[in-house]
Amino acid sequence: MPPLLFEVSSLENAFQIGGHPWHYIITPNKKKQKGVFHICALKDNSLAKNGIQEMDCCSLESDWIYFHPDASGRIIHVGPNQVKVLKLTEIENNSSQHQISEDFVILANRENNKNENVLTVTASGRVVKKSFNLLDDDPEQETFKIVDYEDELDLLSVVAVTQIDAEGKAHLDFHCNEYGTLLKSIPLVESWDVTYSHEVYFDRDLVLHIEQKPNRVFSCYVYQMICDTGEEEETINRSC
Hints:
It comes from Pan troglodytes. By secondary structure, this protein is mainly beta. Helix content is 0%, strand content 56%. It folds into 2 domains: 1-109; 139-226. It has strands at 15-18, 23-26, 36-41, 47-54, 64-67, 75-78, 82-91, 94-107, 115-121, 127-133, 143-150, 155-164, 167-176, 182-187, 197-203, 206-213, 217-227, 233-239.
């Protein structure tokens, strides 16, 4: 057998490699560490400074993290209400060790108050106020569902969904990949049912939204961006 060059233990096969120089991301192999990510150097397994990343959120769906596909060596960490873009840099006066720091953060548009108050009236007529905390991915709050990168336009695309009454409404936001600035927001015409499986693809001037409904019924919605004479982008929607 050839010699073993690298071995690491990680929870649920969560292992990614990337960055400059090479680093890897794992979750320690303990159930209580789920949702905690360690960013370590490939050459010696040393943990980067600030290399333990944990999203401060309480949600049903797990956050996810991966190396940025733009080959910048950055890292994208996505939670229900924020998208963090992290950068990997050398520590000053110590080129052999690296540190993790925030490059920019994209925040969901929601109220800061996580508490909901419910008023009930007892049989004696006394009004009782009960308070409870909302989950960070509560469907009635704007929640990030999909984050993608378009390499030819150098844009980050973020799909945000809010449940309004019986149906969900989604919009696709385009952000500057370098600074995170919001450049344009496109509301999706079709409703977004959070119980269905969704995929959104963004390639140059086309946006595809594929929705899988029960009984293997699929709907595909196609948006095309065009520039008018005033050089302002518009969207044309056609569904099939």
